Each structure stands twice: as structure tokens, then as C-alpha cells.
């Protein structure tokens, strides 16, 4: 019996709940840590980024106004689906990051747990980050966190699933919608995540995933006037300043890359960075 | 089902006066009256009080202060409404009303003397020809808890005795329980009983509690034909406050805009100092405007206020502070 | 309509309480020093154009001196001081501010042109309140909830460079300095060039409070001084309140430096009046929203959105109310509208108002006599304004109200949010559920419902979108000055 020829995969982008090819028609070869072919991935262009931003904007009103409980339910359901794809993620992480199966398993487990951790924040963040404010007058005054809007996320280059999950879940749990640029070298966990999301209850457009080169797409997202914030976690090191400058055009909230240990317990910083605080005053009288 | 007491029979409902032509539907039924009153814009307590507080910071000095003090004197309804009132007390008060400061003939006389109905004859006799009017409370003042027949008799008694002005109280119980038509019809009936006397309608805003109620009661009293709306009896605290006077001034302003008829305002109770009085005049000036800066359209029900105005007046004239020993205690 | 019979006599607050010096130095390292380049400029009273004093212009070398002084104070004194003691210095300053309130109010009105009623009743009481509030935070930072598992206990940033505008000179100083010091930072603050005087009096108060030298440094000057401060490598944090244009410049020039930045910028707030609003209070709120401080307020309610069914009633009441506004001498206790802060600002207000007219909006002002000297602009409303008009989109920063209409709550929200800004909004309605719905829909950092232009040190303030980022006030305001 001859060896079976495998069906080589050419993955697409994930925009607005659909899987389009790059409008540029381009794709690139994804290889494992040793350079062996894994799959073809779409090479996103600036126009794909534009389309993704439009899709994210369209999804924002619905997602941000869903109840916190509902968002938590929807995200927990994603964790269940992630668990179902555990084996696939392990092999993708192992191949992409050049890890042993054991190490990859640990990372995938941590990723799923991370997703669950953030899902649980949905209906706590307002209590933790909001306040009733004791003003000196006959007013009821309270402050609530609200999602900042459309967030461009440059996913970490070297933590293809745990890093990805950390930057995506922290942004969407509070009601933001995201345009994610996946790890250029190891995009397959992101592609699989998009397949998970597509079969989950997360509305189309809440998470949009672009594969390709951050260096090419990021400047367009950083300068995009309808993007409210940008997470530079996976930005090319030499472009961080330029991206920050571009982000100033509409005063995006910018989360700078840090020397993140993605396995460490995340704080609330990343979540809070993508929140606005709204303060509401009302007189108290009869 | 809870049985409700039928409202007392009303003697007669006056025909609609011409100014109310545009509002004739309003008082056609209890329901329409209720819809109208509840359709008036609400009053935000905090906002109204903030506005009154801000206006109270106006600094009235020198010539403006002198002008305001004299105007305030001419607007006073000099009042005694005590169980211990006697003809002697009323006579003394009338003397004070006509000539507030015996040592200074430039001090103007007050607008009116306000007494209980049985004291009206004494007041009329003493004030005769002075230009100071006689105002009498009536309608079972201050509670108003009597039958309409008694209230009307009380009113007629005062009018017959020569009162120029009648200060009636509304039925706050009826108002608070939503029987607006009953309140309306009572005012109309008292208005009838007044004949040529002017009618001031006391809302007793301290018992109505909310500014929304003060605004509704103001409109109700104006719709029923009151010549003045008055804050309080002076027997309930709080009496006249700056914000409640503000709300009532807004009501008379808006009522004139709607109907063309001007109605006066009388804060009463708790205005004891020249400073308080001037704050009220500032409210009038910046809310209803010039047309109300006149004793025909704005009165202050008070007793001890007069002496404080006189002391301030003397201070302005002499440059030194005066003391109560230099003014008569009537 | 008001004021014909009852003519309020002038009631000026006495200037005697203010001891103006002919010239002021820079406040560096706890002392007033001359600028190294010896440059100076004059500050005038905008109400009379009288020269009040000569102010030093800090050059880059002066800014450097100030930053060095702040760094030294940070490292040697302030960061080593127990938090409790830091707090006590702030309490001490707060008390002195209260004791010298009248002096500060008069000086503020003289230099800025704002009515004494506002500086006396709003600005200065809030200044003291701000210091009191943050004084108490100094030794409670670990309870503020800003530190997280990843960042450990709260730590100060170091030296904060702070640049403030001319509209609320001392209040903006308080918004900046009080939280910065409470969190353990030292500061170099640059007041606006037209309104330096109260900041310099504040420097004296720091001396009076025996605040360690260098903890607070005040460098006076204009844009160049500000740039030198922003670009100084020894500064760890930039806090700026001012125009969106300059805010963007700061965001660009600090890119890549790792400096923490908070920006409180422009606005074009919608003040939305529904037909069931408490009309008299709504009219007061509209007036307070746009004519408070001559409209020199970043969160001013400069766009009035009136429900069409209430348009006539609201406009009639509003115009009548404008007729009672008293414009004139800022030191007169009865003045409602003071002077425009500078000829440059007056020029901008005039220019945009002329644009409003040429674009077809109808301009109206109450009969209003303007003083001969000084910089003045009458309270003005434009009706017939559409979203496309420049006066509905650009921040005028003056006493000019653009009136638009809407028919449904959704349309009101759409119009209110249709701007790159997102600082504040107002909603007027008696319906509670609608207030909460509107508050949720409006993309603005502060929503005033049935009130407007209220401020409190316990209440976080700051913008969405191009109105900036970061919050000032309350627990949230600490984050700007902590390394989290």
C-alpha cells in the first residue's frame, strides 16, 4: 500500500464571521520550527485589515450591549470548544513553537484555563473597576467601565496560543471587538481558534483574525481612524515607536509590549487598558 | 373597592372668564384638569434650589439696596395672626403700617395689614383713608378644615366688614389626594364670595412638600381665578423659601404668557431680615421681571421684617448700625 | 427683560487683598529664581488689558533645572517620606488654600477674566477639595485597586511633567498636582502663559506649607516651554490638559520614550433636552452648560439637541433667560459672564461665529453692551444648525451655542455621538429609564443627567475617543500617577 498523500490545507482569513481569502489573493507557507511545511495561510493586505475593522465596528453595538452574564456564557462555551480541539491545538503549538508534546500540552491547558479565567471576569469587572462616588452635593454619581470600542491586536509572535488567547479574551470579555493579527510564524493556532469561534455563539465580527505580516498590516491598523485602541504585544520591535506615532492620529489607547511571561498569572492591567470609565451624575430630590 | 366620600356640593360654578378661553377644556372635568396639571413640566428639586441659591448670591449695594429696601417696605402685608390678638394690638399694628418710622416721614407705608376676620372692623377703622389696605385671612385659616359653607361665610364676613383682600387657604387634603376639581371649585366659590375684594390663594407649600405640587397648585389657583398666589399661612414650617417662591414666580410668568392675565405672588412666613427680602426681590427681578416689581403684583407677608428693613434703612442713611430700641415693637 | 427697574449697583470685590508683584521668577527647588535666558512676558487682565505683572519665560535650560530639582527631591526626600507624612503636607496645603481662598479667587478673576462668583464659588472651593481628597489617598494607595497581580504594590512613576490650560488655571493645577504628590511623584508644572499668577501664588503656598524644596516646581512660559518639558528625558510622566491638536503632538513626541501619558482634551458635548424635561431647570442647565466660564470649558454643552416637539418652548425660555445674563467686570459679584481670556481666543470665537453665519445658521444674542476695553464676546446662540456645520463640529471654546433638533431618542444618540470627541454629554428628561438608556448609549466620559458641569474630586472625569485618555478624580485618578 502506497503512502497516503495528505490533503494540504490553505487557510483563509476570518472576517465578520466568514472565511474570505485575502482580497490580495496572496498566501504564504507556514512551516514548523524546523522549516517543514505545515499549511498555507492567507497573507492579509491593508484592505483585509480595513474590512476587518468595518466588521469589528459593525459587531460592536451588539456585543458591547449584551449582558455581562451573556458574554460570560458565550465565552465559556468557547472554552468548551477549545477543550474539544485540544489535540489539534497541541500538535499546532508543538509544531509551530518547536516544543515537546508535553510542553505544548501544558501551554494548551493553560490557554484554555486562561480563556475560562477571562470569561469569568465578564460580570465582575464592573464591580471591581466601577465605583459609586461620594460627591459633595445632592447627586448620585457613579462610574462604570465601558469597552473602548474596536481594538487592533497584534498577537504575540512567540506565544501562538497562550499569548493569543490572553490578548483576545482580555479585550472581548468586556465588550470590545477585535481585529487580530496572528503570529506570523505560527498562525495555525489562531486559524484553529477562528474555526472554534465560527462554530461558537460569539457573533461574527467580534473577533476578526488576519494572518500575515504584522509589519505590513499593523501600520494601517495603527493609523485607522475608526479603531479605538491598539495592543502592540506582537508588534515588530523596531516599529513600536512608529505605530505609537500613527496611533496618535485619533488618540488610540495604546498598550505597549512588555517582556510578558504569558504563563504568569495575568493581572487586570490588560483588561483595564481597553476600558473607558464613564461617570454619570443625577440629582437626588423629590 | 374602597368607597370614596363624595365631594361636598358646590354652590355655584362661575362661567369661564375671557382670559381662560384657551384653557376652557382644562377645567371641563376632573380628568382633564388632572391631565393638564400633570402635564406641566416637572421641577427638578436640586436644579431649582441651585438656581435660587445662585440668585441669593447677588450682591445688592448702595443705591440699589436703598431702592430695594423702600420697595420691600411698600410690599409688606404687615401681619398679625395670633390667638392672642386684640383690637389694641391691631390698632397699634395699623399705626405702624401707616407710618413705619415715626421719626422719619420719608419711610413709605406698607401695602396692607393682614388680620383675622374678627379684627377687620378695627383695621378698617384705623386705616381708613391711609391707602393701606386691609387683608383678612378666611376660609377656616390656617387649616381650612371646615365645610365650604363655613368657608364662604367666613369670607363674606370679612368682606362685609370691609376687607380689601382675602387670603384663603386651599384644601391641601383634597389636593394631595388628587381631588383637583374640588380644590378648583372651592377657589371659584370663594372668588365669587369675595366680590370686589382681591383674592390671594394660600397654597401652604410646606404641606404640599414637592415643587411639582407647588407648580400644579399655582396653576390650579390661577385657573380658578386667584389674583395672587401665596406660599404659606406662616403656621407651617417650611413657609416661604427662595426656591418655592422661584417656582411660583415661574408659574405666574408662564401663566401670563399663556393667558395674558397677570397674577401676583406673595411669599409669607420666615422672611425676617432685609437681606431675605432683597433676595426675594432679586428672584422677582430675574424670574418674572419688572412687571412684578410692584406692590400690586408682589407682596411679602411678614411682621418682624419691617423693623429690620427700617434698621437697614437707618444704617444706610446714618452710616452707623442701629438697634431694636430705636424702632417701635408693634 | 430684567434689570430696568431694579438696577444692581456695582458690587466689586476688592482687589486690595491681592499683593501683586511687578515681576515673578520661576519656582524651582523651592525658590523663586530668574530664568537663565532672562526672558519675560507680560500678563494682562483680559477685562481691562491692564498689565498685571511680568512673568519669566522658562527656556530649555530652566526646564532642565526644574526637572533636576524634581528628580533630586523625588529621590532624596519625597519617595523616602512615609506616605502618611506626604498626606499631611497635602492636608496642610488644602487648609492654606481655604484660608487664602478669597485672595486666590480675586487673583484668578483678575488674570483669567472669569466672574468672581465662579472663582469664589466653584474654582477655589474645588481646588481645596481636590487637595483634601487626594491628601487622604496618600497612605491608602494599596487599597485603590489599581495595582494588580502582575504589577505588585503601587509605586510612583517619578517626575511628572504637567501642562495645564488657562480656562481653570488653579483648578487644573489642583487636578494635576494633588494626585501626583499623593502617589509619591514630584512635579514640574507649566501653567498657561496667559494665566500664570495663581500658580505662582500656589508656589508661595508650598513655601508656606514647608513643602520640601523641589517637590513642586513651576515653570512659566508658552508652547516652547511646554515642548521642552514634554521632551525632557528626565520626565517619567506627562499629564496635559488642553487642545486635541496639542494632545496629539504630545502623543507623537512621547512615542517610544516609555513616558506615561494622560490627556484631557477638547469636546463638543451634546446637551440633549427631551420634551418631558423639567424645562426651567433644563434652561438653567443649557445656560450653565455653555455660558459657565464664558464657554471656556472643554466639557461645555456646546451643542444643544432639542426634541422638535419642545423646540419652541425651550428656545423661547432660553432667549428670555439669556436676557438676564449680566456681562461685565469679572470682579463684580453680580457678573455672570466675564471676559474672553485672550485676544487670540476672541479671534477664534469671532472667526467660527462668522463661519456659522456664512454657512447659513441664524445668529442671535440678547441686547448686550460690551465694555470698550478688554476682550469680550456676547452670549450667542445659533439656530438652524445641522451636523454638517463647522460650528456643530469644531470646538469654539467660547460663549456660543449651536442648536440642533431631533425627533427620537435614537436620533439624539446618533447625533450626540457623531463627533470625534467624547468628553461629556447632558440629558434632560423626567423619565428615569430613558436617562439610564441614554447614559448607556452616549460615548462620553461624563454624562450629566438633569444637571450639567458638575465636578467633584471624588468623581472621575475624562474623555472617550479624541477627548483624550486617562481619568482625573477619585480612585480612578490615581492610576495616572502610579506605575501599573
Descriptive overview:
The complex is a heterotrimer of chains A (286), B (330) and C (484). Chain A has helices spanning 46-65, 68-84, 86-97, 101-121, 125-129, 162-172, 188-198, 214-223, 240-247, 269-273, and strands at residues 27-31, 37-42, 131-132, 139-147, 150-154, 177-181, 207-210, 229-231, 253-255, 275-283. Chain A has 286 residues and is of the alpha/beta class. In chain A, the strands form three sheets. In chain A, strands 7-6-5-8-9 form a five-stranded parallel β-sheet, with helices on both faces. A three-stranded antiparallel β-sheet of chain A has the order 3-4-10. In chain A, strands 1-2 form a two-stranded antiparallel sheet. In chain A, strand 1 (27-31) and strand 2 form a beta hairpin. The termini of chain A are far apart. The model of chain A has no long low-confidence stretch (mean pLDDT 97). Helices cover 45% and strands 10% of the residues of chain B. Chain B has an eight-stranded parallel β-sheet with strand order 7-6-5-4-3-2-1-8. In chain B, helix 3 (62-74) crosses helix 12 (274-287), helix 6 packs parallel to helix 8 (180-194) and helix 11 (242-259) packs parallel to helix 12. The termini of chain B are far apart. Chain C is an alpha/beta fold and 484 residues long. Chain C has two domains: 15-265 and 464-481, Aldehyde Dehydrogenase, Chain A, domain 1 (3-Layer(aba) Sandwich); 270-449, Aldehyde Dehydrogenase, Chain A, domain 2 (3-Layer(aba) Sandwich). Chain C has helices at residues 60-78, 83-99, 101-112, 116-137, 169-182, 197-208, 223-231, 244-253, 279-291, 311-322, 343-358, 390-393, 409-417, 432-441; strands spanning 23-24, 26-28, 31-33, 40-44, 51-56, 159-163, 186-190, 216-218, 237-241, 260-264, 270-273, 303-307, 362-364, 380-383, 400-406, 424-428, 446-449, 468-469. In chain C, strand 11 (270-273), helix 9 (279-291) and strand 12 (303-307) form a beta-alpha-beta unit. In chain C, helix 1 (60-78) packs across helix 7 (223-231) and helix 4 runs parallel beside helix 5. The mean pLDDT of chain C is 96. Classes of the chains: A alpha/beta (286), B alpha/beta (330), C alpha/beta (484). Chains in contact: A-B, A-C, B-C. At the A-C interface, strand 4, helix 9 and strand 10 of A face helix 8, helix 14, strand 17 and strand 18 of C.
